[in-house]
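Sequence only, no structure available. Ideas?
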Amino acid sequence: MSGAGRFGAHDGCDDGHGNRNEERTRRGQDGRGGGAVPGGDGGREPDRSPRVRVPRASVEDSGLSLPGLAGLGQPTPVPIDLPHDVLKSLLGAWALAACSAAETAAVEEHLGTCGACADEARRLREAVGLLHQPESLDLDPRLRHRVLESCLDRRPPRIPVPAWAAPYDAETARLDALLQDFGDAEWQAPVQLRWFEADAAKSRRTTVAGVIAHLLAVDGLVAAALGLTAPPAEGPGAAGAGQGAEDAARGPAARTEAFWRATRFPQTRSVREPWREQSHALVRTVSFTGGSADGLEVPYGDFALPLHDAMLDRAFECWAHAEDIAEAVDYPYEPPAPRHLRKMIDLAVRMLPGTLAERRRAGLSAPGRSPHLVAAGTPGRSLRLEIEGAAGGEWLIPLDSPAAVASAEFEVAHVALDGAEFCRLAAGHVSPQEAAAGQDGDREAIREVLAAAAALSRR
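Reply:
I predicted one. Tokens follow.
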């Protein structure tokens, strides 16, 4: 029923009901018929208050919608009159935005006239700001290291992890923390492995699971050297569990390719558990061996590394591939702790003279240009490598022979690089042309050293 019909009944419309309503209204006004209304409340007294007739213009339906509440606006709070002591006690609640509108108006009006309260209010607001600093919900990747370091400071372990194995322990733990919450989509995210070979940039496409399978296969070289059961190069189920002479002779790249071919494709999240178990076993074993493993070497196919250097090499590759994975899933990933990063830089620098000699034998680099024949153990031309940052330091690199002694007296060039940038160069993530932050001296020597650093990279 429309609004006009309802209100029209009170204004004498001749529809029968309206007549009775008018008559009932008149009887109520002149005092007659004051009895109970049939069907009403029995003994309740009739309402004898005077009836006010509403003008038609004020109740007639105009057909327009009623104004919304939002259009009425917010009422302006009126400050209440409060004594100074009460207003001062409200400053803490005001700073936390916990006052009512009237109290807020009273406090803010008071702050305009009371300098002492204004200073106190400013200090409280600054304190509240410190309580509400925005923080990421992601855990700091260094949290595990800080917790362990604090625990070990309080109670040293019975069998401590050797300093040369600590970088591998830390980097595998950081990568495992990154993988922990990966879903199936992240495990199959495409990853581009990059390295330099014969001065040319190479790449190979795989997945996050494929990268972990690669780390599992190559870490198996160290496991086999320690007498542990390592994943065989031919994949799970192959005889010998990685202990055969043919399997041990495979280099990292060949071992990875064989492992990829023999395992189910594509690799899945199931590869994480054996990789993590193997990394735990490696850290536990080298911790038990302590100093008795000094003479142990790990074969890498066409070369070998002492166990200490092999563990640093595995830490370096774990970090490099963790960055590959983080880039694939668009997640930030920090460089290693400075003391661990410096050990990795030192390993790469110690390998550079041998790599320079190999490149010369392969015709990829010019022969040494020393003005005199450099005998083993004698000084020769040298390049000063300056590493900047928290992991920084300086190294002199012999240029003419791995057996020569680096000497500041025969320094012919100087290169400055950030620590993480140098490691990315050695991992094949940065080209030699892009890596140098600063260089001075013999340009050819600088190019040779940077190219040799990139040649350290491999799959």
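Residues 30 and 48 are 10 Å apart (CA to CA).
Hope that gets you unstuck.
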